[in-house]
Design a protein that fits this description.
Blueprint: E1 2-8, H1 13-17, H2 30-45, E2 52-55, H3 59-72, E3 79-81, H4 98-105, H5 107-115, H6 152-173, E4 176-181, H7 183-194, H8 198-202, E5 212-216, E6 222-227, H9 231-243
Parallel strand pairs: 1-4, 2-3, 2-4
Antiparallel strand pairs: 1-5, 5-6
């Protein structure tokens, strides 16, 4: 049996402020670090032993992974980082308050920008200070690869080649792999794994720092998927994520 563990990063500073984050590199809050450490303790208690980890270029995911591995006493595990696991780019609305944006444009429009399959937020200018083109960690990207805005469809298109060519091939060689990334990059993987429709994915939210386990048979057929932890608490966290984009 093969196991793939997905974890969205712990609470970030901009999660706490209810701001659109995207590729902006914000840190974890103290609570976010605690969430990550608790996720690691839970994985250790349940007997999980990943052999290889993947994460994005963004510190909120990297630090979540570090805290998870620290709690598991598995800091030595090899880690591969890729920009392709980064969060969806929210374009020109990055840094804006979600509730205030919903009050201005309406809950339905913000829901589309946040959760729809193929609707992009307004785009950044290539030379905007928020553009990845201005960040040296993305010097390897061509101008065509630099996301100035993305829908979930766009996120999946830049993510899935890496998932298919690197992550799945690694899972063929290992029994357990862990990915620590972001709400939308992970939603892209989940949509593919579960065969969810474009409409179903709009309503699906991933809570922060809750291990989401996918089990496969030896032929890589999905046999089981579940969140680890208290079901009632997880449901509350998922609803909290859903409520972030609503006008108060």
């Amino acid at each position: 049996m093969k196991k793939l563990i997905l974890i969205r990063h712990g609470e970030s500073e901009w999660n706490k402020l209810n701001l659109f984050t995207g590729w902006t590199d914000v840190d974890l809050t103290e609570n976010g670090c605690k969430e990550a450490f608790e996720a690691g303790k839970l994985l250790k208690a349940e007997g999980y032993k990943p052999e290889l980890c993947f994460t994005s270029y963004l510190k909120r995911a990297v630090k979540t992974l570090n805290n998870v591995l620290d709690a598991m006493n598995m800091d030595y595990l090899p880690v591969e980082k890729s920009w392709r696991l980064n969060e969806k780019s929210y374009g020109a609305i990055q840094g804006l308050n979600k509730a205030e944006t919903a009050a201005k444009y309406g809950d339905d429009q913000v829901l589309l920008w946040r959760r729809s399959f193929d609707v992009q937020p307004p785009a950044l200018d290539m030379h905007d200070e928020r553009s990845p083109r201005m960040d040296p960690r993305y010097n390897e990207l061509t101008d065509e690869q630099v996301p100035l805005t993305e829908s979930l469809k766009d996120t999946i298109e830049r993510l899935m080649p890496y998932y298919q060519e690197v992550i799945l091939k690694a899972l063929e060689k290992h029994d357990e792999i862990m990915i620590v990334a972001h709400g939308n990059s992970l939603r892209g993987i989940v949509k593919e794994l579960r065969g969810m429709t474009n409409e179903e994915i709009i309503k699906f939210n991933i809570p922060t720092a809750v291990p989401y386990v996918f089990e496969f048979d030896d032929n890589m057929n999905l046999t089981k998927e579940f969140f680890l932890g208290d079901a009632e608490e997880i449901a509350k966290k998922m609803q909290s994520v859903a409520n972030q984009g609503k006008a108060k």
